[in-house]
């Protein structure tokens, strides 16, 4: 049986604004209140990105809301950089790939797998405005085609 994966949050704008070249799964080093907030689904990946620092990979601008059932002094900083748990070889390879012109590392989703918080990272290249317009036109054409085919069947 496959491992049950509980999806917590997705970065919906990522696939609209970037060409996804490659993906990888990484663990997240979190504090207790962060895990509790994640389980409640109180996370925002909108402007999040990853960057290497001192030979380690960190997740920046990922907003995990403070846990509601804890006092203010026991809670975490919502925007603190979070360490990603990856093998050294993976960190080096992804760092080199991200240093190429136009590439960045962005999170696509956060989920729980076997009780551990995981993040799906993507090596991505930013889309130009005309690329986005072409994608929208292609989706609209596909919708029209499906609508016509559905009308014929009925």
UniProtKB/TrEMBL annotation:
GO molecular function: RNA binding
Primary role: Required for rescue of stalled ribosomes mediated by trans-translation. Binds to transfer-messenger RNA (tmRNA), required for stable association of tmRNA with ribosomes. tmRNA and SmpB together mimic tRNA shape, replacing the anticodon stem-loop with SmpB. tmRNA is encoded by the ssrA gene; the 2 termini fold to resemble tRNA(Ala) and it encodes a 'tag peptide', a short internal open reading frame. During trans-translation Ala-aminoacylated tmRNA acts like a tRNA, entering the A-site of stalled ribosomes, displacing the stalled mRNA.
Protein name: SsrA-binding protein
Biological processes per GO annotation: trans-translation; trans-translation-dependent protein tagging
Entry-linked InterPro entries: SmpB, SsrA-bd_prot, SsrA-bd_prot_CS
Stated family: Belongs to the SmpB family.
Primary localisation category: cytoplasm
């Amino acid at each position: 049986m496959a491992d049950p994966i509980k999806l917590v949050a997705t970065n919906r704008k990522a696939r609209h604004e970037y060409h996804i070249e490659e993906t990888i799964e990484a663990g997240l080093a979190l504090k207790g209140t962060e895990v509790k907030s994640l389980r409640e689904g109180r996370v925002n990946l909108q402007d999040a990105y990853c960057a290497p620092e001192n030979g380690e990979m960190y997740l920046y601008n990922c907003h995990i809301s403070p846990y509601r059932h804890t006092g203010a002094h026991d809670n975490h900083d919502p925007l603190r950089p979070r360490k990603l748990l990856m093998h050294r070889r993976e960190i080096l390879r992804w760092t080199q790939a991200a240093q190429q012109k136009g590439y960045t590392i962005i999170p696509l989703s956060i989920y729980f797998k076997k009780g551990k918080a995981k993040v799906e990272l993507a090596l991505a290249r930013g889309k130009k405005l005309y690329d986005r317009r072409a994608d929208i036109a292609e989706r609209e054409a596909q919708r029209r085609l499906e609508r016509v085919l559905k009308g014929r069947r009925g």
